């Protein structure tokens, strides 16, 4: 989780629990029986609705969405431009090492298609299929979280009814009323807090992260296809910058000094252009 999110979570939690403290004792809002009814009932409903392996996958996905950091769009563009330059200088097969080293699964998949000499349309079809089923899996995980969130208020009402029944049965006994009213009221409270504090925010965060990852995958796919077609890195950069917001479109995503150092390019390196210029006239340097 980013530091800003963590700070915001702590501040909002303090405000939330502070509201309970202003008008009473915080211990009044804790009831083990209510928590067992709401949490236990929702857990049973989830186990009856979904396979245990599906719930484990959702847990791993939610945990990874808060613990792992995604690369920014600008960083992905930077990586792709470096790969395009390396491909033009050393050949596509030189990207095999990058395929083995990268930690981005989708980029590894695309580089594997390049090294295996797939056609551009085949690469697009493979990566589009990868994106499609990635989106389906994430939507399935989000659906599980939202379904569990729908269970919680219902079991909050169950707990409330479970508290009202003995209260009505002992309407003449003040001691019974004092024992059962907290169960009835705190069950509704837990039935509202659990989904809105945990499951719905988890699902919303998962959707936001999925959309961000799909954008990165789209950038990678366009970059991989451009590398396969040997598109000039300068043109590639101009194309990929369209994916970024204006504030992220830096003037020099890939510093020239870094390119020269990595690929041993000399400033006076020239390449003849036989299309518009005479053969004996040097043309501009092309990476």
Automatic annotation (TrEMBL):
Subcellular location: Cell membrane; Membrane
Segments traversing the membrane: 32-50, 144-169, 181-204
GO cellular component: plasma membrane
Top-level division of the source organism's lineage: Bacteria
Membrane topology value: Multi-pass membrane protein
Keywords in alphabetical order: Cell membrane, Membrane, Protein transport, Transmembrane, Transmembrane helix, Transport
Pfam families: MotA_ExbB
GO biological process: bacterial-type flagellum-dependent swarming motility; chemotaxis; protein transport
Domain MotA/TolQ/ExbB proton channel: 103-214
Main location: membrane
Region: Disordered, residue numbers: 267-287
Family, similarity comment: Belongs to the exbB/tolQ family.
Name of protein: MotA/TolQ/ExbB proton channel
Organism of this sequence: Desulfobulbus propionicus (strain ATCC 33891 / DSM 2032 / VKM B-1956 / 1pr3)
Source taxonomy: Bacteria, Pseudomonadati, Thermodesulfobacteriota, Desulfobulbia, Desulfobulbales
């Amino acid at each position: 989780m980013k530091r800003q999110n963590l700070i915001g979570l702590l501040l909002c939690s303090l405000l939330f629990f502070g509201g309970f403290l202003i008008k009473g004792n915080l211990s009044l809002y804790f009831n083990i029986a209510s928590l067992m009814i709401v949490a236990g009932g929702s857990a049973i409903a989830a186990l009856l609705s979904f396979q245990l392996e599906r719930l484990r996958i959702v847990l791993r996905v939610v945990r990874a969405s808060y613990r792992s950091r995604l690369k920014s769009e600008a960083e992905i563009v930077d990586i792709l431009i470096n790969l395009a330059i390396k491909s033009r200088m050393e050949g596509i097969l030189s990207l095999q090492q990058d395929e083995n080293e990268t930690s981005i699964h989708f980029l590894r998949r695309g580089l594997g298609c390049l090294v295996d000499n797939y056609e551009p349309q085949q690469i697009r079809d493979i990566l589009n299929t990868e994106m499609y089923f990635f989106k389906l899996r994430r939507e399935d995980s989000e659906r599980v979280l939202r379904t569990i969130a729908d269970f919680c208020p219902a079991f909050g009402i169950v707990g409330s009814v479970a508290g009202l029944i003995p209260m009505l049965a002992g309407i003449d006994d003040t001691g019974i009323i004092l024992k059962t009213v907290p169960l009835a009221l705190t069950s509704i409270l837990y039935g509202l807090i659990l989904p809105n504090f945990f499951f719905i925010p988890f699902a919303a965060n998962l959707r936001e992260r999925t959309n961000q990852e799909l954008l990165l995958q789209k950038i990678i796919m366009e970059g991989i296809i451009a590398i396969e077609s040997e598109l000039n890195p300068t043109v590639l950069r101009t194309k990929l910058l369209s994916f970024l917001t204006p504030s992220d479109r830096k003037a020099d995503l890939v510093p020239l000094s870094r390119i020269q150092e990595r690929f041993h390019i000399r400033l006076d390196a020239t390449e003849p252009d036989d299309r518009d210029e005479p053969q004996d006239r040097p043309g501009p340097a092309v990476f």
